[in-house]
Amino acid sequence: MSEKINANQDNDRQITLVDEQGNEELFEILFTFTSEDYGKSYVLLYPAAVSDDDDVEVQAFSYDADADGGVTSSDLHEITDDDEWNMVQGVLNTFLSDDRLSGE
Predict the structure, then answer these.
(1) Around Cβ 45, how many Cβ atoms within 10 Å?
(2) Quick one: which of 102, 38, 40 has its CA closest to 71?
(3) Which of the two residues, 54 and 85, has the higher pLDDT score?
(4) Distances from the Cα of 62 to the Cαs of 13, 49, 90, 98, 104, in angstroms?
(5) For 73, which of 6, 22, 25, 37 is 20 to 30 Å away at the CA?
């Protein structure tokens, strides 16, 4: 996926990502968090078109929000550092294993 993002005005928990070929895919925002260690904010997304029985592939990006908290097309960044990715994976694993956080 490219770094192009379109916020869905009707549901602020959904984001449309556009790949390099111009294909759009709607994603749900699983959660966001900020890491003091890396000084960045992160968003974790999953495809909106999955059923409850499907395995879900979660995608993670760091992002830069404007002063109002909005995110624009150039604000998503791929995570390329292995240590940073391991930190994000650890936060996701904690989220998924804690019923109070994941809502299960």
Answers:
(1) 24
(2) 40
(3) 85
(4) 16, 23, 15, 23, 26
(5) 37
